[in-house]
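Build the 3D complex.
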Amino acid sequence: MSLPQFEVAQPVSLGEALKILSEVKDSAPIAGGTNLMVDMRAGTHRPRVVVDVAALRDLHGIEVTDTEVIIGAATTIAEMLESPILAKHATVLVKACSSFANALIRNRATVGGNLVTAAPCSDTAPALLTLDAEVKLASVRGMRRVPLEKFLVNAFSTIRRSDELLVSVRFRIPSATATGAFRKMGLRKVSCMAKVDVAVMLDGDTTGRCTSARIAIAAASPAAVRARAAEAALVGKALTPEAIAAAAALAAKAAAPRAGSEYKLRVVEALARRLLAEAALALTRGGSSA
Amino acid sequence: MPKKKTVLRVNGRQHELALDPNVSLLQALRDLGYTDVKNGCEIGECGACAVLLNGTAVNSCMVLAWQANGAEIVTNAGLGTLGKPHPIQEAFADAGAVQCGYCTPGMVISSKALLDRNPNPSEAEIREALSGNLCRCTGYGQIVEAVQLAAERLSHRPKVESGAALTGECGDGGSHSPDRQLDPKLDRGRR
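Done.
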């Protein structure tokens, strides 16, 4: 199957890339290409100019500051899996990456591409939502930082304007006691799209009281979502099985699966209950990591 | 559309090309005669087109040829020849890990990428490393055994093989022919 025709632009700097994106109508950035190549072959995306952003230095690297972890948009899923920074500060994200597609795709697919494509079944989105991540968008008009929750609008739809490039994603370093968990349910053990993803992040004090809770769900709504009501129900409470079960039931209410996929509500509830219990247990053991 | 000047370095051999921008690495390689790189699904699902790109296993259908400009590309045929197969290829034949053979070049490439990084992988690590390669014949059992066998054999031999194979021992065009890639033992034994 051949690809439709297009031209290639290979900017050598971020500034040049942004200029091209602002001046050329129907341009599409490419890094790993694992979404764009499929869409172009299917004819669902026909850019006139493909802009090679894979080599732009501003889009690479995982760094940690005193307060934040910053991941370049062109960082591959495989690079995230091997990052000591993420292993230390964001195991929920590492777990999401380990269930992402398959080994070959992980070597090409990037976190920026996964977020910009905004497939309902994105694996990185729910994990990053529990980290309260922000994305940085750049254009010739300037930079803006947007919470990921606001960035994701609908299935395959974000607030990114056509002249904007997603440069990086960042999140505050979770507290040392915070504990995260992630589970994907698909039709196969590996190399599948999520039927349901649930990610959770809990923090608590020494008395076992929940001080912070974040729950995110993907593939059970048009866009990955936070289960805010479920989170609110946990904060300030002891993490008892009853409190966890009540929160899990609320989490299912945050999902909005398509007609015919109502079973996903029960999956969300079950996964949320299990993950919250896992995270609560880890908290009582002194917290492992986010 | 203006052509893209692209240098592909495949199995130690350099090709200077002028390609349409929309030519995938998979298509470019097959057009050059590297037909051991199989065209399975062209949507990144099956792994039959896997090659090593600067040592990393990737689906060549997901890469545009110009994105591989200057990179070191290794295909299954670049690992060994019919007369001198790579231990991984030999292990696939000996373990009966090949039935129709279509997935085998990609399987071998993913196995090579794994064993280069992790010479003594667990079964779970092998299955994870092969998660992007679909086989519709054997059911994976013998393939996993083949990788275990290859790991065992590679750990018992002096470390010279792969470097030699990469610097162009695959020079004969015949090694690209799909029916000559694997050990002839394949035709015997398991039938």
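Residues 78-186 of chain B form a domain with the DNA polymerase; domain 1 fold (CATH 1.10.150.120).
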